């Protein structure tokens, strides 16, 4: 997988949310860290076109996020910080199947894919559960499954362990470790990304550190004064 930023910047009115940036991302596990308002979420949302560059380009597996925006959405799935907000249907099984409805699949194919992803994430027992009855960890797993079932090559997760207890944090971390896709994780949970292939640190809209996890996390502590 290849993600290429070329002189990419983002402005919201007069505010510069992300200063010009050129880099390539090909590693399997990439962490994105920084203080609140540092630009990390803006950066991540550029990858699947949820945010458009004000200048420059973002290319995802050969697709331009502006010119090929619909195709890019199929390549890069996004799991939001509040995953319950992206569970649309009332029942778990219905929600996972929902993303397959407009893909020209037969009912039998949709059923088979839904069964397969439920089994893959060991949540088949939740298939008939109402989504509002799920625990925080279960909600995160179902949100991931609902995106994975559509076949993206890249997954972007925004604070996937936010407000989870230790047990569910470990469950979600283990699930992320087992994903086949290229994964980018935005997180304040530094332990979640400490074993990642590469970690990026943003500060005031600038990329200020980029490298091995230990090195970048050390720089984060320096910037945060802790």
Description:
The protein has 226 residues and is an alpha/beta fold. It has helices at residues 40-47, 69-75, 92-98, 107-120, 136-148, 166-177, 190-193, 213-224; strands at 3-12, 15-25, 29-34, 55-60, 63-64, 76-79, 154-158, 182-186, 198-203, 206-211. The strands form two sheets. A six-stranded mixed beta sheet has the order 6-7-8-3-9-10, with helices on both faces. The chain has a four-stranded antiparallel beta sheet with strand order 2-1-4-5, with helices on one face. Strand 4 and strand 5 (63-64) form a beta hairpin. Helix 5 packs parallel to helix 6. It is globular, with a radius of gyration of 18 Å. 38% of the residues are buried. The mean pLDDT is 93.
Task: Give the helices and strands, then pairings.
Layout: E1 3-12, E2 15-25, E3 29-34, H1 40-47, E4 55-60, E5 63-64, H2 69-75, E6 76-79, H3 92-98, H4 107-120, H5 136-148, E7 154-158, H6 166-177, E8 182-186, H7 190-193, E9 198-203, E10 206-211, H8 213-224
Number of strands: 10
Mean pLDDT over the full residue set = 93
Tell me about the largest β-sheet.
6 strands, mixed
Class of secondary structure makeup: alpha/beta
Unreliable residue stretches: none
Query: Helicity, in percent?
Result: 25-40%
N-to-C order of helices and strands: EEEHEEHEHHHEHEHEEH
| Number of H- or I-type helical stretches | 8
Distance between the termini: 35 Å
Q: Specify the overall morphology.
A: globular
Report the portion of residues in β strands: 25-35%
Rg, rounded, reads 18 Å
The neighbouring-strand order within the major sheet is 6-7-8-3-9-10
């Amino acid at each position: 997988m290849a993600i290429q930023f070329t002189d990419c910047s983002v402005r919201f009115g007069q505010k510069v949310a992300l200063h010009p940036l050129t880099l390539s991302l090909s590693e399997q596990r990439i962490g994105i860290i920084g203080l609140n308002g540092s630009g990390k979420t803006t950066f991540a949302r550029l990858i699947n076109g949820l945010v458009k560059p004000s200048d420059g380009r973002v290319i995802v597996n050969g697709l331009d996020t502006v010119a090929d925006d619909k195709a890019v959405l199929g390549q890069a799935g996004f799991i939001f910080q509040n995953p319950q907000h992206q569970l649309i249907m009332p029942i778990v099984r219905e929600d996972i199947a929902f993303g397959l409805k407009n893909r020209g699949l037969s009912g039998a194919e949709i059923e088979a894919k839904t069964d397969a992803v439920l089994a893959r994430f060991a949540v088949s027992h939740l298939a008939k559960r109402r989504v509002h009855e799920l625990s925080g960890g279960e909600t995160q797993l179902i949100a991931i499954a609902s995106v994975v079932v559509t076949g993206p090559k890249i997954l972007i997760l925004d604070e996937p362990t936010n407000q989870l207890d230790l047990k569910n944090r470990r469950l979600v971390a283990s699930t992320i470790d087992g994903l086949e896709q290229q994964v980018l994780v935005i997180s304040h949970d530094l332990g979640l990304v400490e074993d990642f292939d590469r970690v990026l640190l943003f500060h005031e809209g600038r990329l200020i550190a980029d490298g091995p996890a230990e090195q970048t996390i050390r720089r984060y502590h320096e910037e945060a004064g802790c």
